Amino acid sequence: MAATSKAKPVREKVREHRDRLRALGLRPIQIWVPDVRSPSFQEQARRQSQAVAASAHAHDDQAFIDAVSAIDFDGGDE
């Protein structure tokens, strides 16, 4: 019969993983971001989008978005 080895607890695996990352010079952070699935977020995004679209500057705003969207930050051609 094969010898059974006891699996490491998840807590220990996580600690070891974090220790390896720290050894690479990294540190953990916690960041909170809006929940894009929430109805209140969707309502607010819709309201802001409509306000921007109805603005007297909508054409210029969109031209700016289009221009910066075309920038290749990796240095390649478009």
Q: Based on DSSP secondary structure assignment, what is the total number of beta strands?
A: 0
Question: How far do the termini sit from each other?
Answer: 62 Å
Query: What is the share of helical residues?
Result: 40-55%
Give the integer mean of the pLDDT values.
90
Number of helices: 3
Low-confidence spans: none
Encode the helix/strand succession as letters.
Answer: HHH
Largest sheet: none
**Shape designation:** elongated
Oligomer: single chain
Strand content: under 5%
Helix-strand makeup class: mainly alpha
Q: Mind telling me the C-alpha Rg?
A: 24 Å
Supply database-style keywords:
single chain, 0% strand, elongated
